[in-house]
Design goal:
Transgelin, Calponin_repeat, Actin-binding Protein, T-fimbrin, domain 1, about 45% helix, Calponin-like
Length: about 200
């Protein structure tokens, strides 16, 4: 974590609002999923936002997590370093974020490296992991391990096929978004350029 003094005023209020979004129950669910999904003997961290942050901070668990969501031999992060050097750990977090985006996590759901490294926004880290879990459950490719009820399934596309005749008939219909033409006529209209009659 960065060596910073306490924040005051508006900065403190903003940080408090960010910290309120952190969900302790969700943390437990995510920790359980990461342990099961990684498939290794990983020690359960003590509860709490700071412990969760320290547990994920080096990026190794995140890289193992994203690799476990791919078939053997197709892992997006081939080499996971256990280095204690800060820049290596931040690089691993960045590799996880790139791999998560390629996996299908929306850019708006992806946290910034400093959100995890400095513990600035752990709720954003939770959002990214929730989105990743939802995608894994939705893909249903056999790589997801854990309880499927932990994450909601994302909506699948529902393609509709229309015949040429149906498409032609649809061109003659005025959608309600454009208003209605019922009762429309030009009766009572005066020609352009005529002055308005004020009585």
């Amino acid at each position: 974590m960065a060596n910073r003094g306490p924040s005051y005023g508006l900065s403190r209020e903003v940080q408090e609002k960010i910290e309120q979004k952190y969900d302790v129950e969700l943390e437990n669910k995510l920790v359980d999923w990461i342990i099961i999904q990684s498939g290794e003997k990983i020690e359960h961290p003590p509860p709490g936002r700071q412990n969760f942050q320290k547990w994920l901070m080096d990026g190794t668990l995140l890289c193992k997590l994203i690799n476990s969501l791919h078939p053997k031999g197709k892992e997006p992060i081939p080499k996971i370093s256990e280095s204690k050097m800060a820049f290596k750990q931040m690089e691993q977090i960045s590799q996880f974020l790139k791999a998560a985006e390629i996996y299908g996590v929306r850019t708006t759901d992806i946290f910034q490296t400093v959100d995890l490294w400095e513990g600035k926004d752990m709720a954003a880290v939770q959002r990214t992991l929730m989105s990743l879990g939802s995608l894994a459950v939705t893909k249903d490719d056999g790589c997801y391990r854990g309880d499927p009820s932990w994450f909601h399934r994302k909506a699948q596309q529902n393609r509709r096929g229309f015949s040429e005749e149906q498409l032609r008939r649809g061109q003659n219909v005025i959608g309600l978004q454009m208003g209605s033409n019922k009762g429309a006529s030009q009766s009572g209209m005066t020609g352009y350029g005529m002055p308005r009659q004020i009585m």
